[in-house]
Protein 1
Amino acid sequence: MATDTTALDHEVRELLARLGVHESRYTEGELVVRSPITGQVIAHVAKTTESAARESIAAARRAFLEWRSVPAPRRGELVRVLGEELRAEISTLGRLVTIETGKLLSEGFGEVQEMIDICVFAAGLSRQLAGLTIASERAHHRMMETWHPLGVVGVISAFNFPVAVWSWNAALALVCGNAVVWKPSEKTPLTALATQALFERAAVKVGNVPAGLSALLVGDVQLGEMLVDSAQVPLVSATGSTAMGRAVGPRLAKRFARSILELGGNNAAIVCPSADLDLALRGIAFSAMGTAGQRCTSLRRLIVHETIYDDLVARLKRVYLSVGVGDPRDSGTLVGPLIDARSFTGMQASLEEARGAGATVTGGERVVVEGAEDAFYVRPALVEIAEQVGVVKRETFAPILYVLKYRELEEAIGLQNDVPQGLSSSIFTLNVREAERFLSATGSDCGIANVNIGTSGAEIGGAFGGEKETGGGRESGSDAWKQYMRRATNTINYGTDLPLAQGVSFEIDQ
Ligand code: NAD
C-alpha cells in the first residue's frame, strides 16, 4: 500500500497537539526529526541549550530537596495519576511511537502499556519501600536498614524504546523520592516531548508537585555527557549501545557516581530435539523479526540440534520469504522499517562479512515501499553459518538471524555463552533435564533466561538487564528500586549499658 506523506505530517501535528505539546516545540528548531516510515521530515525540534540544561539540573536538585520529604505513598499518587494519563492517551502516544520509531501499531501501544504497567507497579511499591530488621549481637539493641532518596536521577535512553525506558526509571525514581532529568535519543524527541507533557498534566492534577521534578534535555550526545559529568546527579541510568556504555561507565566511575548500564545484546535460542516446533517457530519469528530486529532482546542467534535442523530451517525460510514487510500501520505488516540509512548500511556490511565467511543468506535485501522511497525497509535475513565467527559475535541492530547447528547440549550452551554480551537467552525443549540445566549455574550466562518462549518481550514485574558487555544494570521490577535509593544501617541501643561489637573492651574512667 502506498504511503501518503502529507497525511503523516498532518497526523503528527494532531497527535502532538492532543498530547499537549505546544506547536513551537516541534516546528521551530534545529533538530530535524524524520519518520522511518517514509523517511520524510516530520518536525523541527528546538535543542536544549547548555545553560538551560544546567538550569534544569539545578532546578531538579531543588525539587528533590522538597520531594524527598513528601511521604512515599503520596509520591506514589503522582505516579498513579501519570499512569492514568498514559492510559487515557494510549492510542495517541502509541501511534506517535509508531510514527517516530517505525514499530508496529500493536508494539507502539504495547510500549505505552508497559509505561502504564510500571506506574501501577511503582504506585504499589510506594507503600513497600521496606528495609530489613536485623538481629543484633548486643543485648537491648536493634539493627535495621532504612532507605532514603538519592537525588537527581539522570536517564539517557535509546531510540528503539523511546518512552518505556524513561518510565521504567522515572516511575521508580519518583516514588523513591528523587527528581529525574531525561536525555532521550536525538532520533526520538517527539515522543519524549509528549511524555513530558503528560507528566506535567499529571503533576497539575495531583497538585503541590515541586517545579522541575521531571525535566527533559532535547539534543545530542553533549547533553548526555553533561548529565554524566554533573556532580548534582548521583545516579545515571544509561540505555544504548555498548560503545555508549564504554564512554559513559568510566566517566561516572571517575566521580564515584552510580550507574545503571543497559547496553547491547546478542541473544540466542537453543532448539532441542524434543521442542514443540510449531510453538518454537512462532517464538523465533517474533523474537527475530519483531520490531525489525531492533530490540535489545531481539533474537540474533539460533542454535539448532542437527536432527531437526533441516526441518526447522526450511520452515523458517518460508516464513522469512513471505512475512509482510511495509508500513507498520498496515494490518498485513509484521516487519516495519529500519530506523535510518546508517542502520541499513550496517546490516548490509554484516551480511557481506557473513557471506565472506561462507554463510548462506536468505532475504536481507532492501524492499521499496511505494511513497516511501527515502525509507529503509528490508526483508529480514536468515543466515546459515557453520561457525560462530566475528560478525556473529557482534550486535548488528537489524533483523539478521544467524543459524548454527549443534550435536550435544554442552556444545550449544558453550556457543550461547561464547559472545561478549549477556542480555537474553532461551531454550525450546520439552525435556526437563535440558531446561533445568539451561537455567542452572552452568547454563545460560545471561540476565534473562527463558524456556519455551523467545528472547524478547519481557514483563515489567521482573528485573530487566544483562551481564558482561550488556552492562550489568537491572531496571523495572523485583528489587530494582533499591538502586534509586541510598541505604543506611541503623543500630539503636534501648538499654542502659554500652556493649561494643565483637566483645571489644574500652573502659574509660569517669
Ligand atoms: P546509542 O548508543 O547510539 O544512543 C543511546 C543514547 O545514548 C542516546 O540518547 C545518545 O544520545 C546517548 N549517548 C551516546 N553516546 C553518549 C555519550 N558518550 N555520553 C552520553 N550519552 C551518549 O544507541 P541507539 O542506537 O539509540 O540504540 C540502540 C542500542 O541500544 C542497541 O545497542 C541496543 O541493544 C541498545 N539497547 C539496550 C537496551 C537494554 O535495556 N539493554 C534497551 C534498548 C536499547
Protein 2
Amino acid sequence: TNGHAASDGKAAPVELELDALIVGAGFAGVYLLHRLRQEGYNIKIAEAGTAIGGVWHWNSYPGARVDSQYPIYALSIPEVYKTWQWKQQYPGQKELKQYFEHVDKVLDVGRDTLFGTTVLTAVFDESTDKWRIECENGTRITCRYFLSCIGFAAKRHYPDFEGLDSFKGYMCHSSFWPHEGVDVKGKKVAVIGTGATGIQIAQETAKEASHLTCFVRTPNHCIPMQQGHVDPEQQVRDLATIHDRLTKKRFESLGGMLYPDAAKNVFDDSPEDRRATLEEAWRLGGFRLTSAYKDVLTSEAANAEVYKFWVEKRRAQMTDPVKRDLLAPEEAVHFIFGKRPSLEQDYYEQMDKPHVTLVNVKTNPVSHVLSNGIVTADGTLHEIDILAIATGFDAMVGGYKHLDITGLHGETLKTHWEKGVYTYLGMTVANFPNLMYTYGPHSPTAYANGPSIVEPQAEWIVSVMDKMREEGKTRITATAEAEREWKEEIRKLHSTSLRDRIDGWYNGTNIPGNVKQPLNYNGGIPLYLETIRATLENFDGFEVK
Ligand code: N01
C-alpha cells in the first residue's frame, strides 16, 4: 500500500527483568496491567503504537465506531467509570480514543508502558523457566510470564489484485488510516470489502465523496444501530448499578451483553407474536436481532424466517432495483448473521444514491488495477482517487505469525499451529509454558462483547500467577491431552451452529490457503467462564513445577 502506516516511531532500547511482559495496550492489556499492579508484580506493557487503546488507537478510518452499546464497552475499574462521561450510546473512534486518554490519566498506564516497542521474538529458557523477549528497537526483556494481549486483528489482509501496487491515487488499509484523516470531499472514493469496516467507511464517505464505488463480494446483513446520546443524568443514575452490571450482569448472557438471552425458538411464536418480537429487536437496535430467538443460528428454517423479516425491511429502503438485489436479495446468499453483521445508521439510503456505484465482484470480479482505478472483468475502468482497503485481517492466529515464539524443545508456535490451531482454554498452548493470551483463538472472542471476555480472562491469568507464586512454582504448561480435548470441545460446540458452514474469518477461510477450522468458542460466556474457573483449584489440564 502507498498509504503510510500511522507512523508511530520506535523507542530507545532498554533491558529489563520483569515478572511479566504484557504485549499490547488495548482493553485487555490495560486491565491486566491494572490488576497485576494491584497484586504487586513487576510488570510492563510492550506497545507498538504511541498511545494506549489498541484498535481504537490504530483504527481511525472514516466512520470507525463500536458496535457494543453503552455502558458495557468499558473497563469495570471504578476510578475510570466514575470519572468518565460517555456521549454516545455507540461511541465513535474519537470518543474511544479520548476514553483511553482518560484511562491513561487515571491509571497512569503510560508509566509502565514501553511505547514504540514491537515484540519480535520470544524464547522460553528451560533452565530458568523464563521468557527471553527481543523487540524490533533492540529492547530485551527477561520475564517469567509472557502475556499476549495483541487482539484478534493484528495482521492485515490485502487482496491480491494484479497491479495493486501500480495504483497512483491514495490507497490505505482501514487499520492504517492516518490519524489526521484523508480528505475525501469531492473525490472519487472506492471501498473494497463489506465487513463491519467496509460498511462503516462506505456509509460515511458516501456523504462527502463526489463518487463512491463499493466492491461487494458478499452483502452484509446490517442491523440498525439506533444510535442515541447518553444522557448525563441517566449516567449519574446508572452509577448505582454500574459496578454490578460490569462485573456480574454482563457475564450472564451468551454474548456478554446486558439484555437477556432469548427464551424461545422462532416457531414457538405465532406469526403475529414473532413479527412483534422481531420489530421490537429492530426498534431497539444493536445486535438484539441476532439473538431475538434461541435458534436463529442453529435452525435453517428459523434462520430463513428471520431473513424474510430482514430482507423485507431492507428492500423497502432502496429504490434502485439492481442495488436492492445485490445488497438484499430475495433469496439469501448465506445464512443471516452467519457472518458478523454490521450495525448501520443510514447505509442503505446512502448506497441507494445515484453517485454510489455498487460492483458485484462475484459476477464481475476485479481483473486488474491501473494507476487511476480498478478494471473489472467486463472491461469497465472504475476511476478512483482514494482506495480504502477493508478486506479485513488474518484474524485470531495471523497476529501470531508476526511473532517468532519458541517454546519447549525448540518448537515454534508457527509449527505448533501449522496443521490447525491447538490451545487449551483459548488462553494457553501446550509446549509453551508461562505463555497466556487473551482475546484470541478458541475463546468466545468474535461472538461476544470484547471487554466482557478479556476482563474475566485477565482475572483467570491473575489467579494462575497468584497461585503459582503462593505455591512457589515456576512453570505451568498445558498438556497435549488437555489441548486435544479443548479442540474437540470447540469443534463440537461450533458444529451445532450455522456459522460452521460459512466461509469467513470466524473459520479462518477469509485468507486463501488457511485451514478451515472453528476459531471461536461457541458455548457462550457463562459456560466458558464456568469452565475456565473450574481449572484453577487443581490446575486441571496443566503440568506445574
Ligand atoms: O473484515 P472482514 P472487517 N475481493 O473480514 C471482503 C471487527 N470490527 O475489517 O465476505 C473482494 O469482516 C470480504 O468479502 P467476503 C468485527 O468483529 C468491529 O470488516 O469474504 N472482497 C468481506 O466483505 C469484524 O467482524 C467493528 O466475500 C474481498 C471484507 O472484505 C472484524 O473486526 C468495526 C476480498 C472483509 O471483512 C473484521 O472486520 C470494524 C477480495 N479479494 C471491525 N477479500 C465495530 O465494532 C476480502 N474481501 C464497529
